[in-house]
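Dear support,

I submitted the protein below through the web form. The confirmation email said the job was done, but the results page showed an empty box. After a refresh the structure appeared. I'm attaching both so you can tell me whether what I see now is the final result or a partial one.
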Amino acid sequence: MNGLGRILIVEDDPRDVELTLTALEEYNLANEVVVTRDGAEALDYLYCRGEYSSRSNDNPAVTLLDLKLPKIDGLEVLQQIRSDERLKMIPVVVLTSSHEEKDMIRSYQLGVNAYVVKPVDFHEFVNAVKELGVFWAVINEPPPGSMKKAS
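What the results page shows now:
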């Protein structure tokens, strides 16, 4: 499946990770998914640090970001992505259970591309993730230079 973008999932709830992967598998998008379990690990991935120091340094096509995360919360991760020249073009979709207006406002102030409240219903959740995956990894044109092709 060439030309598909990698999807970075930042999610600490194993059930939500499983549902997300199940949803993406239906469109054969799961093979290009990286899962990080907290904000610190997500930043290590994005900055090619620690266990990710040997990964190729291309940016993901999209980051699905939970807000309520251990170590470093999602808003802090978003703020770091948006304040870094090398990362700020990465599309970020907040995928959260938070209905709090302040979280939504802060996310948009920090430059999030979309804010999606996780549906509680299993099928609705799977469908929402499928649509997000197809849109961001297949339909959307990534910013120029964000996905360096290995030659």
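Response: this is the final, complete result; the empty box was a page-load delay. The longest helix spans residues 122-139.
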